[in-house]
Amino acid sequence: MAAIHLFANALLYVVLAAWCTLAPDKTSGSIGYRFEHASARSEYLVVYGGLDLGLALFYFVAGLDPSLHRAGIVFSMCLYACLAVYRLVTVIAIRGVGTFPLAMLAVEAGMATWAVVVWLRMS
Hints:
The chain has one domain.
């Protein structure tokens, strides 16, 4: 079960990295980001392309090596719980948040829950 969770995350993040790298104007525009300076485009590509690709690689390696399964699951719990909490707070505190952040809240909360379930089964 841990390997499935880790490989699912690897796939998710490699798709996100590719999507944000290959279509940065479309992906950034869907959340209201505009590239007014070259630095903004660079930063977006680094964070949404490079970081997501790094996460994909981590999850892939952790999925391959059973000795890393527990660390990968703990990482998922920390990552997704923090994302979901921050997302929930911003959705409550900031008026007019669109449907994309709400959808991501559901994904992040679901991934956090899945990681907790896997971790409990491993314990």
